[in-house]
Amino acid sequence: MIVDTHVHPLSDDPARYPELPPPGPDWYRGLRLTADECLEQMATAGVDQTVLVSAYSVYAYDNSYAADAAAQHPDRFVGVCRIDSLAPDAPEVLSSWVERRGMRGVRLGTADARGYPACERARQLGIPVSIQVAAEELSQVGALAEHFPDVNIILDHLAHPRTDDGPPYEAAREFFALRDLSNLHFKFSSMNLREASAGKSTPRAFVEALVERFGPGRLLWGSDFPHTRGSASAPYKDLVDLARDTLAFLPVGDREQMLAGTARKLYPALVRSQE
Fold first, then answer.
1. Residue scoring higher pLDDT (26 or 122)
2. Among 224, 35, 21, 216, which Cα is nearest to 130's?
């Protein structure tokens, strides 16, 4: 089984789901990825289930399309909403997306302590919290994980640690120092595997370091599709193959854990939907 924990669904109905992008990269121009198209790509690539992460670059804090797409196929998808954790009403907004719209996780763009009320609400709701930050903010991520030891925290894209120095990855020392925070999980994406090809590093060497220091039970994979794409002929399958091929050296149990088991632990709705 393969679970892709990082796909951005993009509606083909802008009237119903208008683009509300904040200033920033417009990577989504000309791209669409409806729920049905996502299922087609998954079938081609051999992916069983997917976590649909609402695209902040496209919809800002309106998670409607990811919520609706996930609801169409609850046995194949779960949805993750993006909220402004620093807003005064963040806890109530999060509750609405989870309790009314069925979202099963939340993604935040900061680990700042001012967002702790939103994380407390996530704890009460029993959902994981994904954090998208730069490597310079890792100390805040560590503080967040320590403050909420019973909340599963997911570090998206691993916060892009520097890897070009190669093993033993001294430049990523602060990143690997997070190993003792047992509730912190590490999502390695297609971007990370590509970044790990630079300099003295290789994707295999970096994955070896991840497994050695964190263990497969705290690692999960996400394609970042369609923000990240493969070739024109296989834009999604190439990303899945990159992950599958990079992890091929590992024991079967470790591969299965990193490509599905950890995701299904963090998002138990993926398991319940197939019972």
1. 122
2. 224
